[in-house]
Structure formats: structure tokens, C-alpha cells
UniProtKB/TrEMBL annotation:
Gene3D superfamilies given in the database record: q2cbj1_9rhob like domain
Keywords per UniProt: Dioxygenase, Iron, Metal-binding, Oxidoreductase, Vitamin C
One family name in Pfam for this protein: 2OG-FeII_Oxy_3
Organism per entry: Colwellia marinimaniae
Highest taxon listed in the record's lineage: Bacteria
Domain Fe2OG dioxygenase: 107-215
Protein name (database record): Prolyl 4-hydroxylase subunit alpha
Cofactor(s) listed in the protein's UniProt record: L-ascorbate
InterPro entries: HIF_prolyl_hydroxylases (IPR051559), Oxoglu/Fe-dep_dioxygenase_dom (IPR005123), Pro_4_hyd_alph (IPR006620), Pro_4_hyd_alph_FE2OG_OXY (IPR044862)
Amino acid sequence: MSLSQAQTTHSGGDKSLFELIANDIVEKGYSIHPHALPKNLSELLLQHISKLSDDDFKRAGIGRSKDHIIDDLIRTDEISWITSNSEAGCSWIKWSESLQAYLNSHLFLGLFSFESHFSHYAKGDFYKKHKDAFKGEGNRVLSIVVYLNQNWSADDGGELVIYGESSPDSPVGDNNHISVTPTFGTVVVFLSEEFPHEVLPARRDRYAIAGWFRLNNSIANNIDPAS
Ligand SMILES: O=C(O)CCC(=O)C(=O)O
Ligand SMILES: [Fe+2]
């Protein structure tokens, strides 16, 4: 697979954005749309983040539940899980659920639930190359990232780098990657098991939302375990 730089600047309604995302996922497995999140939603989310205190953010770990560890060599950002207890959280979850419903009805992905957090990368923070899910292990199917940084310039770093599969047949081999600048309202969606990705060190505060659409992983009476 080769990653193409082609990105669509979006100006239509949710429906046409959802359609573009669905088409991209089928064709390439990922979808990148600068300035695509509805403006009022991006602004509500930014306002909400600016009201959160340092105590609302916790160091992000790696691994799930009992295997959860903090590793300064892998990621240094802080996160705050999004709930529907705020107007912004509620609107974001509603928007994500309408994307989930659209993708389920058009691509039959069987997406069952959604979880997401705000993330804050302070100057110098990074998240090394990783996958959000592993084949046969996780139930994260689709990852979504949305950026909330106004006036972000190329010098500010903090790019999301998405890697394609490196195969001997690929004309670009290991260099097969695409960089996304974390500008306000940019929406990135990709298949969680398929694309390793990393966050390069940011040179100023960088705010984003990372979310995952999941399959139903409930076993007997055990509720789907939290991340
Ligand atoms: O903030 C980003 O660009 C991506 C974050 C990420 O990969 C993650 O939280 O798993
Ligand atoms: Fe990730």
C-alpha cells in the first residue's frame, strides 16, 4: 500500500464528510481532512479544554487495565477521558456516534462503542511509533484523532506521522509515511490494527482528541473492560 498525500479540505455538512471518510476507509484504510470538524463543535471543545485544570489531566500510560504502565521512553503526554457530563463532551460524543452509525450502515463495520480522551502534549512531549490495536487481541477497530490547535505553524512540530506497511514491493519502502500537521479542526481516521503511527515532539502546547470505535467485547456477564 502506498500512502498518498492527497487530502481534502472540507466545507460540506457532516453527511458529506462522513461519506468521504467511508470512501477513504474502503479505498486506503485512512482518511485525513483539514478543518473538517464542524466549527461550533471545535470551538466548544477548545473552550472546554481551556477550563480544565491540571488535575483533570493524568499521565497517559500504555497497555490496558492491569498491564497499564507509564513509560517515559514511549509517551509523555497527559490525557483526560471525555464523558457526557459537559456540553462539549456531550456534543462530541453525539457527533462521534453519528459517524459510527453512518459507518456501520455503509460499511457494516459492527462498531459498538466509542471511547475518547483529550490529550495535552506540552513542549517536548511525544508518543513513539505504535499501533492502537493488535490483530486478534484488541477490539479497537477504528481510531479517530481531532486537533484543537489554533495558529499552528510548521515550526511548531508535533506532527502525527502515519506509516504504511513496509513491503519489499513498495517503491518507497520504510519511508512510506504521511505527516499530518495538527491544525484546528483537522480530522484523521484510520484502521487501528493497520497503521503504526507516532507523534513527533511538539514545540508548544498541543491539544487533541484521540478516540476509538470498538467492537463488542463483552464475555458472558463481564462488561467490556475499560482501557
Ligand atoms: O495526537 C495524535 O496525533 C495521535 C495520538 C495517538 O496516537 C494516541 O493517543 O494513540
Ligand atoms: Fe495512537
